[in-house]
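Hi there. Long-time user, first ticket. I'm pasting a complex I've been working with (about 1356 residues overall). I'd like to know whether the download I got is complete or cut off, because the file seemed smaller than I expected. Thanks.
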Amino acid sequence: MTTSAVDTRHLAINTIRTLSMDAVQKANSGHPGTPMALAPVAYCLWNDHLNYDPEHPGWPGRDRFVLSCGHASMLLYSVLHLAGVKNSDGSPAVSMEDIKNFRQFGSPCAGHPEHGEAAGIETTTGPLGQGIANSVGMAISGKWMSGRYDFEDCDFDVYALCSDGDVMEGVGMEAASLAGHLKLDNLCWIYDDNQITIEGRTDLAFSEDVAARFESMGWSALTVEDANDLDAIDRAISQFKENKSQPTIIVLNSIIGYGAPNKQDTASAHGSPLGEDEIQLAKQSYDWSNEKFTVPPGVMELFEENLGRRGSAAYEKWQSNWAEFAAGNPASANDLQSIFDRRLPDDWESVLPEFPADPKGMATRVSSGKVLNAVAGKIGWMIGGSADLAGSNKSLIEDADAGHFSADHFAGRNFHFGIREHAMASICNGMALSGIRSYAATFAVFTDYMRPAMRLSGLMHQPVLYILTHDSIGLGEDGPTHQPVEHLASCRAIPNLLVMRPADANEVSQCYGVAIGQNKRPAAMFLTRQNVPTFDRSKLGDPRGTRQGGYILLDTDGNPDVILMGTGSEVEICLQAAMTLSDEGIRARVVSMPCFELFEEQSADYRESVLPSSVVARVAVEAGIEMGWLRFLGSHGRFVGMTGFGASAPSEELYEHFGITAENVCRAAREQVAASRN
Amino acid sequence: MTTSAVDTRHLAINTIRTLSMDAVQKANSGHPGTPMALAPVAYCLWNDHLNYDPEHPGWPGRDRFVLSCGHASMLLYSVLHLAGVKNSDGSPAVSMEDIKNFRQFGSPCAGHPEHGEAAGIETTTGPLGQGIANSVGMAISGKWMSGRYDFEDCDFDVYALCSDGDVMEGVGMEAASLAGHLKLDNLCWIYDDNQITIEGRTDLAFSEDVAARFESMGWSALTVEDANDLDAIDRAISQFKENKSQPTIIVLNSIIGYGAPNKQDTASAHGSPLGEDEIQLAKQSYDWSNEKFTVPPGVMELFEENLGRRGSAAYEKWQSNWAEFAAGNPASANDLQSIFDRRLPDDWESVLPEFPADPKGMATRVSSGKVLNAVAGKIGWMIGGSADLAGSNKSLIEDADAGHFSADHFAGRNFHFGIREHAMASICNGMALSGIRSYAATFAVFTDYMRPAMRLSGLMHQPVLYILTHDSIGLGEDGPTHQPVEHLASCRAIPNLLVMRPADANEVSQCYGVAIGQNKRPAAMFLTRQNVPTFDRSKLGDPRGTRQGGYILLDTDGNPDVILMGTGSEVEICLQAAMTLSDEGIRARVVSMPCFELFEEQSADYRESVLPSSVVARVAVEAGIEMGWLRFLGSHGRFVGMTGFGASAPSEELYEHFGITAENVCRAAREQVAASRN
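Hi, the file is complete. Here it is re-exported in full:
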């Protein structure tokens, strides 16, 4: 390499550093230290290794770059800018103006990288551990697409930069354990071992041997002694690429805030602007001018010559391989193209089962299993699994060809996620980001374990399906630790998440119709352990009403005296109560309300037709807490449900004990009707 | 040992097995396989090692036994029965009748062990990973009490039996990492390596080298090849006791459902009754009679002779050491006795600061730091820390004598929990279970990371204090990943948790007054990053109204036309709006509502006096979602707040953008008043 080329490399690296420092300073908030430390590895990765075409950042065969330490967002924005990554309309993903507006309203350069704000932001990061766990899902996607469809050009590499926090967080450890088990050799984590956390030196709280820990989990662990040693970094990345049986972690010894003489290697370089004086000194140490937001000549050209040229050639090569593959394998290519385009087969809904009336019925987890299998039969890229509860969750794709995903069989559609709910959800996010339709199953109470990842499904608009069984005290003997009481409410609180609780098998089918049809929203489906009847719809409302979120299941002749409403297993209680009330001459309408969010999206007219404001006598029944129901109950309505934790006993006894019975609904209804007549 | 003694040992072990099988069968639900596998180690631990007096199971110096694999609850119940553990009234903690009522309503033998249901259940387990993480908190408690007060008899040992799930769950890994870092040599985990999970063989999802992983984290790892080899178990436990510098994990190779010829070593022995036929065969293999619920002669006597005699002597010795210590160290003894009795100093509330009015004010996280320090000055056993955000959370006890808890200084009161929110909360539960007043601090958005443990604080009635700063979009530039929007609602959903959001420094002081005064409830305090004024109370309601959960902060002459209510940083907006409205001739009452749960506990009269039902014009303001507010707003009220995720920008711009402004409150109030006059 010529001296001038070497010089330009350092120029490029220092450009990343100075842009990051300047942007944080201008915003007067942010994290300068990590971009300054990691500029060399980011440079080396992007310029010399990444299979990435800045002109086509959506190219499905691209290598993925995840900045798991999302607080170092200026590192990513600087690189996206210098690499000339383009939005689909040809505009720069990150312009200099955007960088100058770092952390300001409307800038794609948010405090933490937000997926969707600019091309090149592969996933939203910031909550620690999530990015690396997502990266496992991305690596799985590459393995699965190439394994399932025998198109090896989908076996892209996934790189994640991560911090102490990422490797300390449980979700990151769970994901690492699974990645090692699955021998994901397309996955490379680069661990920024800077010895500094917010509270001080990492050894205040963290003294384990990280390399040994990863090795115990089946990873290859490499060390780079000096984060500024480009050759060593290059060698380590090359070693990763040569390893065809393990994921790799590169432990990179870095100095946070490198170059800032008074702040480097201290926590004070982490989360605040350096200050003008210190920036000036740092720039001196880089032999840099004092100007702000400078990109010296040659820097963008260097990226263009290396990353750009290499990426463009790879992109072209991929396109021609793809054309050839598609010609020879039209069915597989059609599936893959659907994944790339996030399309579903036109007629996929035709497979949604209709269930005959059956008073004995079946648990909604059972009908969910049937519907899941019907849908999975049509959508070959619907894949997922359970956190070790597949049998209980009825989440297995049973088709003989489906198989299990393993290190020996990347074509499998069923995943054994292990007892790792949090990583499961985060991995499903990573899979969804590749266009795959992923689902995650566990007991409803364990939504608590994976909530940070569920929130990110919503924030990133990823249509992950959460299959949540054993959805109330109806699970019985396992007791309060396993009985969701507040989980419907707390999931309904998550923005942009559809929470569904179908009442019978046909509502389950319709819920799948809605959930799978989503392209921008995750869905959480709450399902019973215990049997519920499949309603005789000849006498009741059409289950397609489910799609409006709430609908009249049983109506009265003339205006109702009272409205009974519920979800899931408690709708049957409403129906029983309505019959008793009818015998007493009280006209009770029954409304099934499987999805609050969808109901709220309906027209005011529709909502009024289901819940006429003139009928103030209302009773809602749900084996959970009341939170969230008042909007349908109004001030005068009554709620029949839980007020605290459950207990360990057979299901029927618990319903009786906690008073979630038709008798109590009738009593509440009578009082409501009497009050409304006064 | 005589042959008959050896025989009785096996008799005891098989009694544990058969009681467990019989109870699960009778309940027709439960987990027989693990008790059958682990009966020998449980026997050996209790009979030969545990420092535990069945007559005094509340003795503070006792060794702790945690059944982290809570689904194996019958193992614990069988042992508590056979060991003759007594409730404080002298009745058996677990009677044979209780065992026969396993998993039935009212039996202390719940599906999973529930702390408080019977003496000897040290913590509630079932959600995997929680028990072992609690055990780290318990081990810390022992180290801390002995280190802080120089009474080494408090340095008890803590044993936890754990399963694949426990060691796969992230929270367990986080806790293990911290335990290794802290060199907790009083902590012993026994890992039931049975190679079976619910979905099949563990190697479907889990192939790491567990011993090596723990060694990488600073643990001593021992292996017992055969779970039925009592001598090997004994040797391993003895080795743990001799290790004075590391926690120990004993990897125990066991056979799930040991003795059941057709089900042992398969997943079918895990979570369902064995069936009468298989039970009969298993009993044959143990050389057992076919009777149900049998305790052969000699078994309880064996526990009495070993555990009982040893425990009673240890208890007596401890009492005499304690008397001697107390005589020489009355102040320390008084502190320790307060911990044991869960008492606070009588006059502790006298230290709650009063803050002078200050229009500039301070962030509530800052006033929280001041109040925390005042309280910690009075309550020496209030200890805790942050998940690497102490500076931001203002959660440091600053007293020069407080120090940091570390392997070299077990007397320290400040904890560096590392970037491990989930383990932090679970460890705080373990500390609270020892009577220590523990607190856990992080950003409010990360409550999602520790929610399963927060739920268990509520379920176990442990008064852990959660200090949650950066409580809204008011944190500004960090953006939507860091901005809690739904977290107030989702925390309010957790039963038995007080959720508090004080509006100014004096409300913070009062909130601490309530939270610390709790003995049976955890509290979650939501605190601002940004400054809020300290209100001039000469013109406003007394901050002691905070203790009613909601109170009139600003009243009107005569009946109010409209009620404005809010929490935290939005109360100031209500006050501003009230002034504007007053200028327009609209009488607006302002209600501060720092704690919904407390307000709901007040008398109907009090609630009516604050929110008179005659005033239907109401506006609530909170920089979060509306969920939970309707109960105070009524059907006609209006909510001003968030409807989805936040954004990255300076705080003031975000409030403006999302319309959480005095102007919007005024507009809503005017409309409300106009509507209510129609």
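A couple of notes from our side: The mean pLDDT of chain A is 97. Chain A has three domains: 3-314, 348-534, 543-677.
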